[in-house]
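Predicting holo structure, FE2/S2 (inorganic) cluster bound.
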Amino acid sequence: MTPEEIISKHPRTNDNLLNILHDLQNNHPEQYLTHEAMDKVAQYLNMTKSSVYGVVDYYSMLSTQPRGKYIIRLCISPVCHIKKASGMLAHLEQTLGIRAGETTSDKLFTIEVAECLGQCQEAPSMMINEKVYNNLTEERIKEILAQYK
Ligand code: FES
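Done. Tokens:
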């Protein structure tokens, strides 16, 4: 689908801004929002470009940078932090050979850090795209990543 097709399937109301942006991002092979696409959204909803860019900046789930096929979002909020999320992050970074915010050269994985994923009772937690993984250990991360390779 082209960006125009994705945008125009949503009713032309500002309430749909986030839905349109998520749809555009999910449909881009590198899972991000181009400036061209954001400008088209602004035009479609009759909003200023800066309003749309501001919303994209505000929501950590939205990105203006190309990302991998699988986006790993590791929670670093307090409960996960206490349960050694920083060690899990270091393990992810070492295993994939990238730092948080970066994408592997094969464009398969991007690591991001995230605020609370609402899984505190089973911390530490991460998401890969829409799927949640809890009770992380180094061994469990190894098994999880193997499913995506
Ligand atoms: S603090 Fe990590 S899921 Fe809530």
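The pocket of FE2/S2 (inorganic) cluster is lined by residues 75, 77-80, 116-120, 123, 125 (CB under 6 Å).
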